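[recover] target loaded
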């Protein structure tokens, strides 16, 4: 339970759920059809069995539809999780680059860690400070606060 202005604790496994949702979204945005277990395992650097377990969990949570031997697609709720994490990631990259002067070749690694831990308040402050940027330092579109897929 949160007390005295501290952030509430995150549910166990939240970071992994967000990483899988983001990976599914990223792969599926580049082509049609379900994302295979093997594609996710390779992208995330995990064993296929680990990927399968998480895909079943995402399905149980209503974030994805997983069909064994066919693949996985995100539900609207899962897509929202993915877009939120992507928005955080790309805003952090933009903030690190523009506001703090971090070299563009280093911002991705930092954003990978921080994307899971910023509050909605910090997201709003960073976006406002940057003038609600439309693209990150690499030229990739940033989802808007409405969490609709960004226009490429």
């Amino acid at each position: 339970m949160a007390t005295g202005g501290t952030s509430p604790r995150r549910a166990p496994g939240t970071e992994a759920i967000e990483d899988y949702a983001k990976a599914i979204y990223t792969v599926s945005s580049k082509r049609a059809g379900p994302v295979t277990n093997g594609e996710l395992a390779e992208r995330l650097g995990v064993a296929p069995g680990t990927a399968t377990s998480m895909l079943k969990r995402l399905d149980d949570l209503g974030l994805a539809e997983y069909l064994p031997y066919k693949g996985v697609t995100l539900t609207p709720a899962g897509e929202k999780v993915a877009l939120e994490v992507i928005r955080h990631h790309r805003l952090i990259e933009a903030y690190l680059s523009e506001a703090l002067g971090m070299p563009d070749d280093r911002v991705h690694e930092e954003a990978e860690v921080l994307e899971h831990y910023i509050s909605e308040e910090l997201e709003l402050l960073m976006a406002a400070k940057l003038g609600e940027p439309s693209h990150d330092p690499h030229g990739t579109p940033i989802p808007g606060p409405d969490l609709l897929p960004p226009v490429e």
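[recover] notes: The helical segments are 14-28, 37-44, 48-60, 76-98, 104-114, 120-129.
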